[in-house]
């Protein structure tokens, strides 16, 4: 450690570090807690900051660096009732007490947990599931699945590693805040009727969007699927992306492309990417034009971050929570317009260089992300592994089903776009979910954030949180992260 036991609060930004080196001798987890005491010269005014993280080492992998400290929201306490004392005490004393818990939980599967990005370990074992049974610890019958307490008996206290035999459940006062937002029987999911613009005839919208062909310039092919293409180009000297279909696309696929591509026409929100214009000079290959976001598709961006293809970008927990809030704001606006999105996922969003996220339509998503959709008994290709239980069983959609999908979006964000339920047969998904099985807690995901996901995946739609309740909790969580990190 390069930390002094006492000292004066610096007037400029400084950093401290703790090097936690893995020996590679065994799989193990060590809990590290750092308590920072800030006081004035009178010692009557003390603020206590607690930093807590788990260091996880994998057998056979030594000298792994894990030098940063992850601040858990909700572990901050102040005897004065205000944490701003730390800022005011520019000449105060600092005492650091580092407590390393000796309890070591041996894992069947583990890895190096980084707070800012997911490691290659997660690629090898991304699908730890969670069983939403009531109030039981892991049992022999549960195999690789964990259990959580009932929402009505207390908030989820999830075990971060579903394969652990020694993992114990614990109550968390911060998770209790989720139960207020999620399990209130007074504030139920809105029952307003929802509509799907994709089911309406797009011809009227297309007439309003129509522009001359020479105003659209196609410059570079960015993506290509079996039936569709996406170009980078310009429209009236503005950088745009242009979606179109190939000649091989059937008339039905072209009609679906136009309906989905114009579904958000006329809507305006900072977290929505709506269509600019269209050209139908060639009915078999219409052009749909959208504003361009520098980083492009959010799913591809997250995958590149996981693969460390961006040397200058390391996504923190704050960044990921902020992205989730932006997606939620866009979804709330759609719900305010009585629109049920039905296909909420990171593949249907874009991001720019400032990490500003916008929900876009899902036109060409089936073509460009074929592994995310499955053709079911009704011969319709659906995002089965993002769908709520009632949508799978009864084809019912609404605000509550979008909330379920938002829970999967949170999981995608915290795993940097891993594939949910990759080893589950899509035809078995409804049975899988009906038996109470859910996605497990991602590596590096704070308990508070995972608790939000589990509430989004409640079987009963009315027991899921409303979008405004999710927003309130995520904003509080984001504020806590930003204030003390």
From TrEMBL:
Main location: membrane
Keywords linked to the UniProt accession: ATP-binding, Glycoprotein, Kinase, Membrane, Nucleotide-binding, Receptor, Signal, Transferase, Transmembrane, Transmembrane helix, Tyrosine-protein kinase
Transmembrane segments: 83-106
Keyword Glycoprotein: yes
Record membrane topology: Single-pass membrane protein
GO biological process, one term: cell surface receptor protein tyrosine kinase signaling pathway
InterPro entries assigned to the protein according to its UniProt record, in alphabetical order: Kinase-like_dom_sf (IPR011009), Prot_kinase_dom (IPR000719), RTK (IPR050122), Ser-Thr/Tyr_kinase_cat_dom (IPR001245), WIF (IPR003306), WIF_sf (IPR038677)
Location of the WIF domain: 1-57
Keyword Cytoplasm: no
Compartments reported by the entry: Cell membrane
Reaction(s) catalysed (UniProt annotation): L-tyrosyl-[protein] + ATP = O-phospho-L-tyrosyl-[protein] + ADP + H(+)
Domain Protein kinase: 216-478
One GO cellular component, as annotated: plasma membrane
Any one Gene Ontology molecular-function term assigned to this protein's record: ATP binding
Protein name listed in UniProt: Uncharacterized protein
């Amino acid at each position: 450690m390069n930390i002094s036991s006492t000292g004066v609060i610096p007037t400029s930004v400084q950093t401290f570090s703790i090097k936690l080196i893995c020996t590679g001798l065994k799989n193990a987890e060590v809990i590290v807690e750092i308590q920072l005491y800030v006081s004035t010269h009178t010692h009557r005014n003390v603020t206590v900051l607690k930093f807590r993280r788990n260091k996880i080492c994998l057998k056979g992998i030594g000298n792994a660096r894990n030098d940063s400290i992850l601040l858990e929201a909700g572990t901050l306490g102040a005897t004065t009732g205000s944490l701003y004392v730390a800022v005011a005490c520019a000449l105060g004393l600092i005492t650091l007490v580092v407590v390393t818990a000796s309890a070591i939980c041996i894992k069947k599967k583990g890895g190096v947990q980084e707070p800012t990005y997911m490691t290659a370990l997660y690629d090898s074992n991304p699908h730890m599931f969670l069983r939403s049974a009531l109030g039981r610890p892991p049992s022999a019958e549960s195999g690789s699945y964990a259990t959580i307490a009932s929402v009505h008996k207390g908030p989820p206290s999830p075990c971060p590693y579903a394969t652990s035999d020694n993992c114990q459940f614990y109550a968390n006062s911060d998770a209790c805040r989720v139960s207020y937002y999620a399990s209130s029987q007074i504030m139920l999911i809105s029952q307003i009727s929802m509509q799907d613009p994709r089911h309406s005839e797009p011809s009227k919208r297309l007439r309003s969007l129509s522009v001359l062909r020479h105003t659209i310039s196609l410059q570079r092919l960015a993506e290509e699927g079996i039936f569709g293409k996406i170009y980078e180009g310009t429209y009236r000297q503005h950088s745009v992306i242009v979606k179109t279909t190939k000649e091989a696309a059937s008339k039905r696929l072209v009609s679906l492309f136009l309906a989905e591509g114009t579904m958000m026409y006329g809507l305006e929100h900072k977290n929505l990417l709506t269509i600019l214009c269209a050209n139908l000079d060639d009915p078999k290959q219409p052009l749909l034009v959208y504003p361009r976001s520098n980083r492009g598709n959010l799913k591809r961006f997250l995958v590149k971050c996981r693969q460390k293809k961006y040397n200058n970008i390391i996504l923190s927990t704050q960044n990921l929570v902020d992205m989730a809030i932006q997606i939620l704001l866009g979804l709330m606006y759609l719900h305010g317009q009585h629109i049920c999105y039905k296909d909420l996922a990171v593949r249907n969003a874009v991001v720019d260089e400032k990490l500003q996220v916008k929900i876009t339509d899902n036109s060409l998503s089936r073509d460009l992300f074929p592994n995310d959709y499955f053709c079911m008994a009704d011969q319709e290709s659906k995002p089965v592994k993002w769908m709520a239980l009632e949508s799978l069983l009864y084809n019912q959609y609404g605000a509550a089903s979008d909330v379920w999908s938002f829970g999967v979006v949170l999981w995608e964000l915290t795993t940097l776009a891993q594939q949910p339920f990759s080893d589950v047969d899509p035809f078995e998904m409804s049975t899988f979910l009906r038996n109470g099985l859910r996605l497990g807690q991602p590596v590096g995901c704070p308990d508070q954030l995972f608790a939000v996901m589990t509430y989004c995946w409640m079987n009963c739609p009315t027991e899921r949180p409303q979008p405004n309740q999710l927003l309130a909790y995520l904003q509080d969580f984001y504020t806590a992260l930003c204030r003390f990190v």
